[in-house]
Amino acid sequence: MTTADRDPILAAGCVLWRPAISGHGIEVAVVYRPKWDDWSHPKGKLKRGETARAAAVREVREETGMACAPGRELFTVRYALQGRPKEVRYWAAEATGGSFTPNREVTRLSWLPPHAARTRLTQPRDRELLDAFLAESPR
Q1: Domain residue limits at 119
Q2: Is residue 100 situated within a structural domain?
Q3: Domain count, the chain
C-alpha cells in the first residue's frame, strides 16, 4: 500500500491574530511544540464526527488558551507525516479572549508582528500560509 492509498489524517487549525498591543497593526500567534521541536500555527486532528471548523476552534483553545472567532477559510495544507498523508484546513481567526498556560503539547506561545512570526515559523508551508493570510489581512 502506498502513501497515496491510505486515508489522510484530517486536521484543522488557525492563523490566530489579534490587534497589536501598540494599537498599530496586528500580532500573530505562533506556538512551540516540543515533540516536533518546531514553531507553528495552532492545529490538531479532528475528533470523530467533528467538523474541521469546530476542530480548528477547539485546537486553538487547547493549544493557546484563546477563544477565537474564525473568519475566512485559508487553504488546505497537504503533506506526509511519518509516511501517511495529512490534510490540514486553516482559517484566519481573531483571538477574542483567554490566557495561555503551557501544556504537554505546547510549551510556549508568542504573539509577534507578522514579519517576526514569519521568521519564527519552522516550516515553509506555515510561512506560505501566513503569506496567504497577510495578502488579505484584517488590518
Answers
A1: 11-135
A2: yes
A3: 1
What is the share, in percent, of the chain residues with pLDDT greater than 70? 94
CATH of the domain at 19: 3.90.79.10
pLDDT at 46 over 90: yes
pLDDT-derived band at 62 (thresholds 50, 70, 90) equals very high
**CB environment 13-30: b (16+ within 10 A), e (fewer):** bbbbbbebeeeeebbbbb
Domain membership of residue 1 (yes or no) is no
d(CA 9, CA 84): 7
DSSP state of 46: P
pTM for this predicted structure: 0.93
- What cell numbers appear for 51 in the block? 467538523
